Amino acid sequence: VTVLNAALQGVFLGAFYAVLACGLSIMFGVMRIINLAHGDVAVLGAYIIFVIVERTGVSAFVAFAIALPVMILLGYVLQLTVLERSLKAGILTPLLATFGLSIVIQNLLQLAFSPDVRSLGGSAGSLTTSSAQVASGLSVSALGILVLMVAVLVFGGLQIFLSRTRAGWMMRATAEDIDAAELVGINSRNVYAWATAIAVAIAGLGGLFLGIRSVFDPVSGPTQLIFAFEAVVIGGMGSLWGTLLGGIALGVAQTLGAQVHPQFAVMAGHLLFLAVLIARFGGGRALLRAAR
Amino acid sequence: MRVARWTRTSKFFTAGTGLVAVLLACVPLVFEPDVVQKLTTLLILVLLAAMWNALAGYGGLLSVGQQAFIGIGAYGTVYFAGLGITPYVAMLLATLLAGLIAIPISLFALRLRAAQFAIGMWVIAEVISIIVRLNKNLGAGTGISLIQLNQFDPIFRQAYTFWLALAFTIVFMAALFFLLRSPLGASLQAIRDDEDAARSLGVRVAARKRLLFVLAGLGCGAAGVLIVANTLFIEPGSIFSVQWSAYMIFMVLVGGLGTFEGPILGAILLFAIQTTFTQGGPWYLVGLGATAALFALLLPRGLWGTIEERLGLRLLPVGYRVVEAKHEQRAA
User: Fold this and answer.
1) Residue B194: HSE in the Cβ half-sphere, 13 Å Cα cutoff
2) Do residue B296 and residue A97 have CB atoms under 8 angstroms apart?
């Protein structure tokens, strides 16, 4: 039962990773780039929510609603200032530019908020503590359920947006073939900027959950980026629902790994990620041959 | 018209480089140990920048995980020294170990492209870091000292470490220099310029990239060896830190990605910045990150690449140039 319980907790944890990974997946799907500052953007979101909570005393969820327009604007501006230029310069430039951005965000946060760890747990109401015993040894926390539901809603909402709305069609068309999309009158600059805006907004949601679930500090970003990227790759790059499943697979791997040894949790996730990469891109046979 | 490799400037400068190397070798005889230690740091930076540039500038492989090899070099030294092997022999063994481990990693990592390679390497570095943290014999998470080096007098120790750093830097830079000048180098530069085109012309892209990857693994391992020899203490949190990748990216981007001289310039600049802002601190890192991003966006060829383009200057020639007849007459 403990293993089953661990797997269940892993699903909840994985839903959180899926939310973190969602923005990364959108940006890769639309623009074929990976934003190496994605984790830091999520942590930045957590800090913005933290400031709003400190100043006004509202709950973390209300603060997120206030922070949302800020995040959307941030994403829009990020695209137009940094990413758009880097996209034109080849496949390595977006990685280099966003890696630089990642260091900038981390250290600006360090300057503004000191290296102390913060949490949003205290301002999220009774949600963080309440849990229910489903069966003996199987417990379900209210927060876990909430994150899972929100994750499904976010991915479902995106699915509807992409398949049912005009803006969604434009986004898919641009992702498919940017030149053809331009020919039929789509403003690809605008589409890209909105894709990044949505990605950053969802990263902010990831930041909210990060802050409620546990603690964060200015340098939490890179770890979040790694987990988010692992979720995207495990689920299959460019597939939205795949990212949700990938996140859950990563979460389950981590909680099951923790059953073996507490320090083995993150390791198990990494190993799953590397195994998926080897399975997808090959090299396994060469590795085995080398081992022999 | 004819095709030439050397110009008068580059002949002069290459000879100058040899002279600088000789002068550097005399440094420990003249200066105080703390100056020697600082210059050792500079050599480590030059080595790291050159290796990262070999990967990204010539192989198109952007790694955010070279700290894996730095850590293997550093921990390998402590491990081999712990077995009772003379520290300086342990250092050579640890460097070879880093190169050896690079081979199996290359078998699958080189199949990845762009972001997958970048973050894949990062995850590999994290995995190796966790393995070290789980190992009590290597000091687990709290770090470990290279106590075996204490048997040497500090002044001699610092001098030996410096000479080792100088030797490593010269060996790896020379290896890269001659590699790039060989016919192999032409194929590497073809890969850098257009991988698909190079492949269609019959360049064995995978084998060439593996060569660069293993060279960079050896070089970064050597840098890790030098770091532990220079500071005598390492802990997984800092030796496997992604900060190393940040430094390498900064040096190479500012100096000039895909140029031979650029990373040296970048390393000297980073060293100057580090010595000026000794407190370090967040503002300094904000500056580094912003500068790297701006160079990537606005000046992708870096300082040296731009100088080279504008002035046609080439100090350490790894390519060829076309000399027009008029200049030739004047030269004659």
Assistant:
1) 6
2) yes
